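Contributing new complexes? Match this layout with fe (iii) ion.
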Amino acid sequence: MRMLWKNIKGLVGAYELPPAYLKGKEMRGFSCIENAWLAIEDGKIADFGAMSDFPGIVDWSGLEVVDCTGRFVLPAWCDSHTHLVFAAPRDGEFLARLEGKTYQEIAEAGGGILNSAKALEALPEEELLNSARFRLEQVIRQGTGAIEIKSGYGLSTEAELKMLRVIAALKSEYSIPIRSTFLGCHAVPEGKWTAKSWTAHVIAELLPKVAEERLADYVDAFCETGYFSVADTEALLKAAHAFAIQGKIHVNQFNAIGGVAMGIDCQVLSLDHLEQLSASDLSALALRADSEQAPVFACALPGCSYFLSIPYTPVRSLMDANVPVALATDYNPGSAPSGNMSRVVQMGMVKMKMHPLEAIAAATINGAAAMGVSDVAGTIAPGRSANLVLTKPMSGLETLGYAFGEEPVEKVFIDGVQQ
Ligand code: NIG
Ligand code: FE
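Output block (do not edit by hand):
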């Protein structure tokens, strides 16, 4: 199968040799070739360039020529933070919030994550897998071409392993890159547990099993007042190091309690949420970004800010401090029941003042790097899988943010095949 896409209004994120990620100040310079062409062969990117340098077609056999006039082509979205495996929606809690309760009040009354855990425990693995397949296929059709998925609604050894096996099944069934994260410390289960004793149990009992069965690429904890302390989170991250599993943590969603500096010290790959960012958190991230050490991504989740009406992560300050920023959906039944990355990019522009190329870089190249798949996703390069988004005709990339009620994606291709 051979395709030639021509007259592309803007080909975004195409490189002969792509960088692994972009630091804050570089994000606005994410590559965009105006009036471009792109060749795809056997599901892979073959070549690309500007129409002014188009070499012409030598071999017409089996070639499908697609006229992309007015449309942009982007790398498929890379969603580096989701809880896509869950048993049931929590729309009743949404209604309770509309009637005046807060997310925290609902959680304290046994709703929230504990509510999801009860539903998950009761659901047979096959049904959990079926619902996850359905959601995954839906987000792929919306343009997602690489995704990270967390456990964390198990809250028992058996149920956590069930979630992780479902993610493993998705990995084997779908060709897009999928990364799994063991979110062992998400909420304290009901009963005899404290945050400290549950963390100790996770470290002693669950983590070794998860590592032995190779069910997790990353480890995660909800480092937050009322959930897991900085010390609990640090203990989990250090224990995971012994199994060579890196951290990607939920931190500073409601309170800045010191998780940022600790996470950086513990060499996490990403710090996610950061709706509350103190001046010392920002300087710690800036210092790390200016060092020669491996990057620590700040991953903003605007769908969660929107849905819970909490502050948006100050990504403008983070990017100005040269911190590499990623955008992800946080797709989950409680705080962000949407896996639509185009919507996240739109919010990045409107609510977080990101330039179109900054928002797109955060949702592609940096999202890929924030889940360790930048060698195969997040940019368009010869030899890579043709996982691409073709937009509707639009006057500029800013239309992705401007036309906020419209679906900007016209077609999605995975391995060169339209979804
Ligand atoms: O990222 N903050 C912790 N975890 C999820 C939401 C969990 C839930 O409400 O189900 C989040 O927002
Ligand atoms: Fe989350």
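Reviewers usually confirm one structural detail per submission. For this one: The pocket of N-(iminomethyl)-L-glutamic acid (ligand 1) is lined by residues 112-113, 116, 222, 250, 253, 304, 330, 332-335 (CB under 6 Å).
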